[in-house]
Specification:
Elements (H helix, E strand, L loop, with lengths): L11 E4 L17 E9 L5 E10 L8 E4 L8 E6 L2 E5 L9
Antiparallel strand pairs: 1-2, 2-3, 4-5, 5-6
């Protein structure tokens, strides 16, 4: 969980692990992605989640996803590691900065 867009509501942050079970997992050759699920209220008071791709390509998630302000700009950045390596993804959402 984390608040990547600093709107005061945390999002679910997850991703696809590259060859999580050494290629025996369903979808092992599918695209490697990091995603966030943003919750919103819909009609009738129910909660819906919008899936938003953060990154597609090389930076998949392992078992740990860490958030920290690495470049000290006030925005949380992502740090992930897995079988494809160690990746730092810097949050570039500076347009919303007060």
């Amino acid at each position: 969980m984390g608040n990547l867009d600093r709107d005061g509501r945390e999002e679910i942050i997850t991703g696809k692990r590259y060859f999580a079970y050494s290629g025996r997992d369903k979808g092992a050759n599918g695209p490697i992605v990091l995603v966030r699920y943003v919750h919103r209220l819909s009609g009738g008071g129910s909660v819906k989640f919008d899936r938003q791709i953060i990154h597609e390509g090389k930076a998949g998630s392992g078992l740990q996803i860490c958030l920290a302000d690495l470049d000290k700009n006030g925005w949380p950045d992502l740090v992930v590691s897995g079988k494809r390596g160690f990746h730092m993804l810097f949050n570039q959402d500076n347009q919303k900065k007060p």
